[in-house]
Design brief:
It contains 9 helices and 17 strands. By secondary structure, the protein is of the alpha+beta class. The chain has an 8-stranded antiparallel β-sheet. A hairpin with a 5-residue loop joins strand 16 and strand 17. The longest helix is centred in the N-terminal third of the chain and has 19 residues. It is globular. It binds adenosine-5'-diphosphate and magnesium ion (MG).
Length: about 325
């Protein structure tokens, strides 16, 4: 069995996707950390250039504006992310949906500057009519995508996870044997630390929220695994006594009601973990837990317990990823 990788622990960081990235890696002697930093930033810049809904020049924005009937050639990474997005959409019975762009904008969570408030019924119907992952048509083994008219992809719930995977793959290809990669809270770990053990990460329990007691902190072992958490509380607004979160229920076109405070998923890729965290948020703590159990998925929910507090539930597969 292979143990300690020779080298020392190095930390790198930067900005991407409106958030931060950080990498801890075991650097071989004489590693060029500046060059590594540049390669990581380049990989993440590629994801942004392809999938950012906040940059009009990105592939995803140009596709949105393409004339109806146009077949659109996808860059390789984009095609891979879309493939996974469609897979999760199908497997989650549409709870995850990469075509919600019009609804994300309508509710004020997009780049259009639309105020965050409950939209009118007509506008909601129009945005819903343009959405729906079954409208996606591809050819050439998924490398070409049809713009049927009005289709507006949103890969924001999966792109950060993909960024983690892409950086990890980049580091491996550069000969790095062990690293912990984080993009905006989604984290992947491969290889072993110098002490021979896998990376450990703390799963945030609840964000500082005075009204509820803290949940126990959970520590995961990430042995060639990734973890993603959905449900940050900055991306929501309240109106008439109700909170509207940035995760939309594709069945209604309305933000998920009573969204779990957080949903955490462990998977072999950060991309899958990220997408499933969103899918399970849409399903809700009760249905989501049952779904995850049936599929053998590693998932943890922190959700309202009905008496003003929070309750933590997790699948057996999640439990087995916890550090002893
Ligand atoms: P979280 O950390 O809460 O999962 P993400 O940034 O990963 O947040 O994903 C939230 C974003 O995903 C939203 O801002 C929106 O762009 C998009 N989104 C919202 N609802 C869905 C959904 N049901 N399926 C796929 N993407 C969604
Ligand atoms: Mg997500």
């Amino acid at each position: 069995m292979e143990h300690a990788s020779a080298g020392s622990l190095a930390s790198l960081g930067g900005e991407t996707m409106g958030t931060r990235w950080s990498v801890r890696l075991i650097a071989p002697p004489r590693a060029d950390l500046h060059a590594l930093h540049a390669r990581i930033q380049q990989a993440l810049d590629r994801v942004v250039a392809q999938m950012s809904t906040w940059d009009d020049a990105s592939d995803i924005c140009r596709f949105r504006n393409a004339p109806a009937g146009t077949w659109w050639k996808l860059p390789e990474e984009f095609a891979r992310v879309l493939e996974c997005a469609i897979e999760v959409a199908g497997a989650s019975d549409g709870a995850f949906d990469p075509t919600l762009g019009p609804l994300v904008d309508l509710w004020g969570f997009g780049s259009t500057g639309t105020p965050r408030r409950v939209p009118g019924a007509d506008a909601l119907e129009q945005a819903r009519a343009r959405s729906g992952w079954t409208r996606i048509q591809r050819r050439d083994a998924g490398r070409e995508l049809l713009q049927p008219g009005g289709l507006q992809l949103d890969l924001s719930a999966i792109a950060k996870g993909f960024g983690v995977d892409l950086v990890a793959a980049q580091l491996r290809s550069l000969g790095i044997r062990a690293a912990l990669v984080e993009v905006g809270g989604e984290i992947g770990g491969f290889g072993r630390k110098p002490d021979g053990d896998a990376w450990r990460v703390l799963v945030e329990a609840t964000m500082a929220d005075a009204a509820v007691p803290e949940m126990p902190a959970r520590v995961l072992r990430l042995d060639d695994r990734a973890v993603a958490t959905s449900g940050d509380r900055w991306h929501r607004f309240d109106q008439d006594g109700r909170w509207y979160a940035h995760t939309i229920d594709p069945r209604s076109g309305v933000p998920v009601e009573d969204a779990a405070a957080s949903v955490t998923v462990v998977a072999t890729s950060a991309m899958e973990a990220d997408a499933w965290a969103t899918a399970l948020t849409v399903m809700g703590a009760a249905a989501g837990l049952e779904f995850a159990r049936n599929r053998g998925m590693a998932a943890r929910f922190v959700a309202a317990d009905g008496t003003g507090g929070l309750r933590e539930t997790m699948t057996g597969a999640f439990q087995s990823q916890l550090a002893a």
